Amino acid sequence: MEALTRRRFLALAAAGTAAGLGGALDRLAAAAPAPAIDFTLAEFLVDACELTYTMYRRGGAFDPPPGYALVHQFRATAKTAPEWFGFVIRSGAQAVVAFRGSVTRPDWLADFDVALKPFPLVAGAGRAHEGFTLIYRSCRDDLRAVLRVLPAGTRLVITGHSLGAALATICALDVAANTAFSAPVMYNFGSPRVGDQAFVDAYARRVPESWRIYNTADVVTAAPPQTLGYRHVPHGYALTAQTGRAFGQGDRPGNHSLVTYLHGLRMRR
Questions:
Q1: Which range marks the domain in which residue 31 is found?
Q2: What's the predicted TM-score (pTM) here?
Q3: What are the helix (H) ranges across 149-208?
Q4: Taking the CA of residue 85 as centre, how many other CA atoms within 13 Å lie in the half-sphere pointing to its CB?
Q5: Burial 145-180 (b: 16+ CB within 10 A, else e)
Q6: For the segment 128-146, what is each residue's pLDDT rounded down to a tens digit?
Q7: How far is CA 114 from the centre of its chain?
Q8: What is the DSSP letter of 150?
Q9: What would the pLDDT profile of 220-267 be if each residue is shown by its tens digit?
């Protein structure tokens, strides 16, 4: 990530952290009744999210986890040209849709499209982040075509990290409202806020089995700020893993790294 983009993101996150009342509302949402978190599934999904980055770095090549078969890989468009953004894998009666986070400059520029616009995919679902919504819509038709050929009764799990976590949130609401998979499971990691309170309410009604796993030391989860009208979706699961670095440097993980999230999950079991 370029230094200028990083500074802009840290400033945006700081604005979110400073909004105390919004933070209190987010904590109330995170405390709402929730199904029990499945730590084994969560740790597996961290690895799946890591594979989305591997796929991007290798131009689409990656090895699915043991026991899983690749169903489909998909691209999405952030600002300019299509990029590898995720995949669908399947093992028996379970399929996983995984989205990657920000890697390229266009990805980060889309992150800063923070205008809340009416969410176009589900009636009455309030407003959502314009940049996230546009990226998701660019791959939506491709994903829906894949979902239509999955066997009936498949348990659909949706996951992502960072920007990918936001895309997973949007995807879960869309899938629950507009496909045969009316009860998707959503686990994400290091998610920014995605929409306003009406979006959160619509999401909570349609996606009850949802876990937004966040590191309390991760600045990404504090953006976009509540002062712009943003709120977090439930259910939040907090862990604390402070590395002293926001995003990491070289091979050293930061507070936003999937390595740090996996460590935090293992420490809290």
A1: 3-268
A2: 0.90
A3: 163-178, 197-206
A4: 29
A5: ebbeebeeeeebbbbbbbbbbbbbbbbbbbbbbeee
A6: 999 999 999 999 999 999 9
A7: 16
A8: S
A9: 999 999 999 999 999 999 999 999 999 988 778 999 999 999 999 998
| Cα–Cα distance, 164 to 86 (Å, whole number) | 9
The whole-angstrom separation of Cα 263 and Cα 79 is 33
Position 68: which residue type?
Answer: Y
Residue 240 CB partners (closer than 8 Å, separation 6+): 215, 216, 217, 264
Nearest CA-CA partner of 119 in 175, 192, 183, 198 = 198
The candidate with the shortest Cα–Cα distance to 68, out of 84, 85, 45, is 45
Neighbours of 9 (CB within 10 A): 21
| Domains: count for the chain | 1
Which tokens sit at 62? 């990656």
Instruction: Name beta bridge partners: 213.
Output: 189, 237
Give the sign of the dihedral formed by CA 205, CA 208, CA 212, CA 216.
Answer: positive
Nearest-angstrom CA–CA distance, 29 and 179: 26
Sequence letter at residue 83: E
CB of 157 closer than 8 Å to CB of 254: no
**CATH number of residue 54's parent domain:** 3.40.50.1820
In 3D space, the residue among 157, 42, 35, 161 whose CA is nearest the CA of residue 95 turns out to be 157
* Nearest-angstrom CA–CA distance, 163 and 62: 20
pLDDT at 250: 76
The upper half-sphere exposure of residue 268, i.e. CA atoms within 13 Å in the direction of its Cβ, equals 20
Backbone angle region of 162, left / alpha / beta, with phi > 0 → left and psi within -120 to 50 → alpha: left
Give the whole-angstrom CA distance, residue 55 versus residue 152. Answer: 28
